[in-house]
C-alpha cells in the first residue's frame, strides 16, 4: 500500500479535529499533533479554517461583551471572517477561533441585519430567552433574522471531565413561509475505562402560521418548539431505555452453565475431570 500524501494526512487529521467531542477539542488537537511529530506544522495552514468550522458547528456560547447574556458563535450569525452577530447586545462580536475567545466588538451596521424582520425577530428573542432560562440552566440562545426567516439557535453544554463525560445539545429552529423546521444535534461522550459516544442528528417539521402581532406569533411558535423538543427528548429516553433491555443485553457475555461467575482469583486451582466434570 502506498504511503499517504501530505494532503491526505492533513485531511485525515482535520477530520479527527472536526469530530472532537464537545469540550475536548484542545485535547484532540494535542493528540493529533503528537501523532504527526515531527511534521505537526503541516496543520498550520488549515488550522484557522478547521477551528472556524468546528466552533460554528458546535455553536459555542461566549459572554457578550459588556452584557449580562451569552451569545452563540454560529454560521447563521457570521457577517465576516471572525465576526458574529450579537442581536440582543446590538453589536457584532469579534472572535478568535484558535484561542476560542472574544477579542473585540463593534456596533451592528445597517447591512448586518434585515430591518424588515427586526420586530418579529425581537419578539422571538424575548420568548426564546424565557424558554431557555426555564429549560436549559446551562444553555444559551441567539435569534437571527436571516434571508427572510427567523432562526432560533439553542446550545447547552455540560462538561464533567473529572467523571469522564461531556455533552452538548444543539437545536436550530427556522420559521418562515408558514413552517417551523427543527434540526437537533446531540453529542455525549463517556470515556471512563472505554470510549462511548451518543450522536444524534435529525430534523422535524411543523406547520405554523402567523398569529397576528409579532409577539403572538413568537409566543405560539415557542409553545410549538417546547412541545416538539420535549417529545424528542422523551423519544430518546424511551429508545435508550428499551435498548438497555435488548441490544446491550445481547452484547453481554452469558454466564457459564453453572449460572455463577468464575472466581478468577482461584482459576489456577481448577482442573478438568473428564469423567465427572470440573472440580477444585
Structure report:
The chain is an alpha+beta fold and 280 residues long. The protein folds into three domains: 6-13 and 15-55, no CATH class; 59-113, F-actin capping protein, alpha subunit (Ribosomal protein S3 C-terminal domain, 2-Layer Sandwich); 114-253, Alpha-Beta Complex (Aspartate Aminotransferase, domain 1), CATH 3.90.1150. Helix content is 34%, strand content 32%. It is built from six helices and 13 strands. Helix 1 (6-18) runs antiparallel to helix 2 (25-36) and helix 4 runs parallel beside helix 5 (214-245).
Instruction: Determine Rg (CA atoms, Å).
Output: 25 Å
Within CATH, the superfamily of the largest domain carries the name F-actin capping protein, beta subunit
The biggest sheet amounts to:
5 strands, antiparallel
CATH class label of the largest domain:
Alpha Beta
Strand order, sheet with most strands = 7-8-9-10-11
Distance from first to last alpha carbon: 52 Å
What's the shape? globular
Measured by DSSP, the beta-strand proportion falls in 25-35%
Number of helices: 6
Annotation, overall tally of beta strands? 13
CATH architecture of the largest domain: Alpha-Beta Complex
Average pLDDT rating: 89
Order of helices and strands: HHHEEEEEEHEEEEEHHEE
The structural domain count equals: 3
Briefly, what is this?
This protein is α+β, with helices and mostly antiparallel strands and 280 residues long. It has 6 helices and 13 strands. It has 3 domains: 6-13 and 15-55, no CATH class; 59-113, F-actin capping protein, alpha subunit (Ribosomal protein S3 C-terminal domain, 2-Layer Sandwich); 114-253, Alpha-Beta Complex (Aspartate Aminotransferase, domain 1), CATH 3.90.1150.210.
